[in-house]
């Protein structure tokens, strides 16, 4: 009985088996029963949302909830590695303090209110169109009354379509991108 109890101690099993301590002899029963946190989860490939380098991420999800986010070893950009910000992107989507509603503060107001997304999108579209109508120069065929700053995490095709929408569609000349690469 004492021998059985002592053999549950990994150190004694390593000595008995003359093992180097890197295999099952170094594990407790609890350790052997552990499973990866993303076991049984589905995986989706994604791109890190931060700097624009384009590091690949594997987003593990189960039952509609994100389980973990890890570097994608098949990514030619990052080869499975993430910087500290990218490695913390799990917190970006799961933190209890994350904003999940549209917050709006009317001009000259001190109070923020929650607003449905559709109402906020309609408000933005209406204001953009009113600004374009008010500031459009028919002679030059453009407006300088508004600008667009793109995000570096978009791919070339998305950036091309956005530039076409804002320059040809709305007549903006102030179109830029925050890419740092």
Fold and architecture overview:
- The protein is of the alpha+beta class and 181 residues long.
- The protein folds into 3 domains: 2-33, no CATH class; 42-94, ADC-like domains (N-terminal domain of TfIIb, Single Sheet); 102-177, no CATH class.
- It contains 7 helices and 8 strands; from the N terminus they run αααβββααββαββαβ.
- It has helices spanning 2-7, 10-17, 29-33, 84-87, 89-94, 117-135, 156-169; strands at 42-47, 56-62, 65-71, 102-104, 113-115, 136-137, 142-150, 172-177.
- The protein is elongated, with a radius of gyration of 27 Å.
Short précis:
The chain is α+β, with helices and mostly antiparallel strands and 181 residues long. It has helices at 2-7, 10-17, 29-33, 84-87, 89-94, 117-135, 156-169; strands at residues 42-47, 56-62, 65-71, 102-104, 113-115, 136-137, 142-150, 172-177.
List keywords for this structure.
N-terminal domain of TfIIb; alpha+beta; 3-stranded antiparallel beta sheet
- Low-confidence stretches are none
The order of strands across the largest sheet is: 1-2-3
So what's the overall shape? elongated
Number of helices: 7
Helix vs. strand class:
alpha+beta
Helix percent reads: 25-40%
Give the DSSP E fraction (strand runs of 2 or more residues).
15-25%
Q: Describe the biggest sheet?
A: 3 strands, antiparallel
Q: How many structural domains can be distinguished in the coordinates? A: 3
Element-level helix/strand string: HHHEEEHHEEHEEHE
**C-alpha termini separation:** 65 Å
Number of strands: 8
Rg (CA only)? 27 Å
Report the mean per-residue pLDDT as an integer.
86
């Amino acid at each position: 009985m004492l021998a059985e109890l002592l053999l549950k101690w990994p150190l004694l099993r390593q000595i008995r088996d003359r093992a180097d301590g890197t295999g099952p002899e170094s594990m407790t029963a609890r350790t052997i029963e552990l499973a990866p946190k993303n076991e049984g989860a589905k995986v989706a490939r994604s791109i890190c949302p931060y700097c624009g380098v384009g590091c690949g991420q594997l987003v593990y999800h189960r039952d509609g909830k994100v389980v973990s986010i890890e570097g994608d070893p098949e990514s030619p950009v990052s080869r499975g590695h993430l910087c500290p910000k990218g490695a913390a992107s799990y917190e970006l989507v799961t933190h209890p303090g994350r904003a999940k509603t549209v917050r709006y503060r009317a001009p000259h107001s001190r109070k923020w209110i929650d607003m449905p997304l559709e109402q906020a999108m309609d408000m933005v579209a209406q204001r953009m169109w009113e600004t374009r109508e008010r500031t459009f120069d028919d002679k030059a065929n453009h407006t300088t009354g508004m600008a667009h700053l793109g995000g570096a995490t978009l791919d070339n095709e998305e950036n091309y379509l956005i530039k076409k929408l804002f320059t040809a569609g709305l007549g903006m000349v102030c179109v830029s991108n925050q890419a740092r690469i």
